Amino acid sequence: MKISRLAVPESQTLPEDVQALFSKAEDKLGFIPNVMQIFSLRPQHLMAWRNHYELLMRGESELTLAQREMIAVTVSSVNRCYYCSTTHPAFLRLELAKENRDSHIATELQFAPLDAEITSAEKAMLEFAIQVTKSSDTLSSSDLEPLRAHGFSDAAIFDIAEVAAMFNFTNRLMNALGGKPNLEYQNMGR
Question: Whole-prediction pTM value?
Fold first, then answer.
């Protein structure tokens, strides 16, 4: 299966740091995510993107890992990103299981994010992420009030906006390059 509209480099031709990243992913997941293979066309860009991704999605934050994945799923759904709309529900299912929450939330967020069985704070978080995605130029201080009313600090609000922005960037790049998700994501967390 062709995974992109662009040529994807052979792993053995890539710099050592990229090969090490691929090896680590394969050890952890059992496969190399196609996004990394596609981005390896520009190795320095891949490494910078991956470091930023890890910081946002796994680094210190008041947001739970599941909440960050909720943002990823919702933004990717709004942007109609086939790649991320396939991969991030899988990661969300895994995180929801760790929290003993219903994994069907991942599917609900793909199709009707604000109707999903999530907390009111999470709905406010996702409403804001959707605003960042659809109309960031119209946001004002008053758009932050629902988040603050639900106890989100300024640092958490920054994290919500940054995760949404990261996925807007990645979604657009994967859409432009025709990125195809690994088949393994279909059954992850099920």
Answer: 0.96
